[in-house]
From TrEMBL:
Catalyzes the NADPH-dependent reduction of N-acetyl-5-glutamyl phosphate to yield N-acetyl-L-glutamate 5-semialdehyde. GO terms for cellular component: cytoplasm. Its EC number is 1.2.1.38. It catalyses: N-acetyl-L-glutamate 5-semialdehyde + phosphate + NADP(+) = N-acetyl-L-glutamyl 5-phosphate + NADPH + H(+). The gene is argC. Its main location: cytoplasm. One of its GO terms (biological process) is L-arginine biosynthetic process. It is found in: Cytoplasm. This is N-acetyl-gamma-glutamyl-phosphate reductase. Residues 3-141 form the Semialdehyde dehydrogenase NAD-binding domain. Pathway: Amino-acid biosynthesis; L-arginine biosynthesis; N(2)-acetyl-L-ornithine from L-glutamate: step 3/4. HAMAP family: ArgC_type1. GO terms for molecular function: N-acetyl-gamma-glutamyl-phosphate reductase activity; NAD binding; NADP+ binding.
Amino acid sequence: MIKVGIVGGTGYTGVELLRLLSRHPDVELRAVTSRKEAGMKVAEMFPSLRGRVDIAFSTPEDAKLTECDVVFFATPHGVAMAQARELLEAGVKVIDLAADFRLKDPAEFAKWYAMEHSCTDLLAEAVYGLPEVNRAAIQSARLIGMAGCYPTSVQLGLLPLLENGKKLIETTGLIADCKSGVSGAGRKAEVGTLFAESADNFKAYGVKGHRHSPEIMQGLSEIHGAPVQLTFVPHLTPMIRGIHSTIYARLTEEGKNTDIQKLFEERFANEVFVDVMPAGSCPETRSVRGSNTARIAVHRPGNGDLLVILVVEDNLVKGASGQSVQVMNLMFGLNEQHGLDVVPLLP
Ligand SMILES: NC(=O)C1=CN([C@@H]2O[C@H](COP(=O)(O)OP(=O)(O)OC[C@H]3O[C@@H](n4cnc5c(N)ncnc54)[C@H](OP(=O)(O)O)[C@@H]3O)[C@@H](O)[C@H]2O)C=CC1
Ligand SMILES: CC(=O)N[C@@H](CCC(=O)OP(=O)(O)O)C(=O)O
């Protein structure tokens, strides 16, 4: 059994990790931290986990994390980078759901996250946690910076078109128009996520620049092997879970002469967590709710040169905790689907 610790077990991604790991056949939950709720039983705070999780929250200091095989950080940005070195030196693998180990350039990290990076040597070692792109590197990694929620959907949607220097679409002027449910903002109290502010309302935010823009462009440029330029506009929608990304790309002459539906179907044929829907489909966020699946549909309106790619995922599962369990499975040589064989919840 793999001994697992979670730092930040009371947030939305933390409790989602608990839900998934509590039914994982190869995992033993050793420690779950909360500074505010230390001492309280996990299942007392989250009755959904009664009979599933039998430990109490402890402070990060009391959690004996160095005795774990792997520690997940489901914490705000900046927490994992302060503790990763000690854990790695003790032989513990680290999976960070925040952004501490995503951006390769420490200056970019400082610019977007308003803090200096405290361990740039580890930043160089860290592997980006997006299995459909990086599976082999993840398998041998000891430190993972999980892909962000929006970046997961946008990179999966463009992967077949860009990888290995393909010239099927223009690589400047790409547009990702993305919508997220409110759980994407986390469980902390904030005016913008109050019911009266976010229900029955719809708005864009971060239009001048969002911290996921550099992450998406870094990822796409690595996938393509050359710079890729994309405009990313996130929106807050009055739903709890889910991301819907609509991506617009101009096809090149080569792209116009390519069967794009077939390209996507073949690229993801062996990916258990990516479903390419039949031509003409419009995937719904509720079709992935609670599951680690991303569903993708490609459209070419009027058979013109504009390609529209639709991607849906659950921000808390494929966009965060589920994908991090997928990554853990790869790091420990387990079946990639263990703990993740969940049918989406309807309605
Ligand atoms: N919500 C989402 O859809 C997604 C979130 N993420 C990322 O995952 C991370 C967690 O997000 P989310 O679950 O939404 O956040 P929440 O705000 O819901 O939860 C944060 C958790 O971290 C703990 N925490 C806060 N500060 C510290 C600290 N200094 N040291 C140790 N623990 C701390 C909190 O507990 P306590 O204060 O009691 O210690 C709490 O359990 C974030 O970095 C976020 O960007 C990634 C993808 C999607
Ligand atoms: C709706 C909402 O507020 N979403 C968050 C993104 C979700 C998140 O926590 O971002 P990471 O994937 O980088 O960890 C935001 O825009 O900041």
